């Protein structure tokens, strides 16, 4: 009888140890599963932080308004464009080309006749694009060729479209030999509440390499970098 009880007690003890071993493995397995979930959760959280970082970066970039000066120019032959790009380079300005909504002819004689007709009619040729943020700029460099002793009439369209009060306007011009004519005074009349500097004239022959003339002019009007 005592032997039977001993055998029963031994079986009971063995069963208990086996159950403990199974519970331990189950907890270990469950613990491992939770660890994987936390790792997955942690990865997703890390991705969210990266996404948040990426979404805020453009806001930081857009907060930087950049240049406070703008070069605005109209160029038919490319001479004024050369001077405009030299000014842009030396002043770190933004740049805007005045492009007619209806393009001018490439034929010189045709453009000569059209320029005269526009002056007689006091025309205001439409500009293809617009400057949305002109209020951001303190200095506006304005360039044009001399057509029949005056600015092309599309420049009058530009000055009619924008109030440049409180800004500094620095005019520059290209021509075969007519100089600035009366264009600086015209601009003063069109923008009476702006400060208009002395203008720069670059002859057609020098317009292909205007850097020296531009540099000297910027120093003279106090806008050199």
What features would you describe in this structure?
The chain is an alpha/beta fold and 225 residues long. The chain is built from six helices and six strands. The chain has helices spanning 2-62, 79-91, 108-121, 153-161, 183-190, 211-220, and strands at residues 69-73, 94-97, 139-145, 168-175, 195-196, 200-203. Strands 1, 2, 3, 4, 5 and 6 form a six-stranded parallel beta sheet that branches. Helix 5 links the parallel strand 4 (168-175) and strand 5. Helix 2 (79-91) packs across helix 6.
Write a compact overview of the structure shown.
The protein has 225 residues and is α/β, with parallel strands linked by helices.
Termini separation = 111 Å
The overall average pLDDT, rounded, is 78
Unreliable stretches (pLDDT < 50, length at least 5) are: 1-66
- Tell me the series of helices and strands, N- to C-terminal: HEHEHEHEHEEH
Given helix and strand content, the structural type is alpha/beta
Number of helices: 6
What gyration radius follows from the Cα positions, in whole Å?
38 Å
What proportion of the residues is helical, as a percent range?
40-55%
Can you tell me the overall shape? globular
Care to count the β-strands?
Answer: 6
Topology:
Blueprint: H1 2-62, E1 69-73, H2 79-91, E2 94-97, H3 108-121, E3 139-145, H4 153-161, E4 168-175, H5 183-190, E5 195-196, E6 200-203, H6 211-220
Parallel strand pairs: 1-2, 1-3, 3-4, 4-5, 4-6
């Amino acid at each position: 009888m005592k032997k039977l009880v001993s055998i029963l007690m031994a079986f009971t003890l063995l069963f208990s140890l086996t159950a403990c071993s199974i519970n331990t493995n189950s907890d270990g397995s469950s613990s491992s599963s939770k660890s994987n979930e936390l790792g997955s959760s942690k990865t997703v959280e890390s991705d969210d932080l990266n996404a948040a970082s990426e979404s805020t970066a453009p806001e930081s970039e857009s907060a930087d308004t950049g240049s406070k000066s703008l070069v605005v120019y109209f160029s038919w032959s490319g001479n004024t464009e050369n001077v405009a790009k030299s000014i842009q380079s030396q002043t770190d300005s933004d740049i805007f080309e005045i492009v007619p909504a209806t393009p001018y002819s490439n034929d010189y004689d045709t453009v000569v006749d059209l320029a005269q007709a526009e002056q007689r009619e006091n025309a205001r040729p439409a500009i293809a694009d617009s400057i949305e943020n002109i209020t951001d700029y303190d200095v506006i460099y304005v360039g044009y060729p001399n057509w029949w002793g005056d600015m092309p009439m599309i420049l009058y369209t530009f000055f009619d479209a924008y109030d440049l009060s409180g800004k500094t306007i620095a005019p520059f011009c290209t021509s075969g030999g007519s100089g600035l004519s009366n264009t600086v005074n015209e601009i003063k009349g069109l923008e009476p509440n702006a400060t208009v500097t002395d203008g720069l004239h670059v002859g057609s022959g020098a317009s292909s390499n205007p850097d020296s003339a531009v540099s000297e002019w910027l120093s003279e009007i106090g806008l050199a970098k």
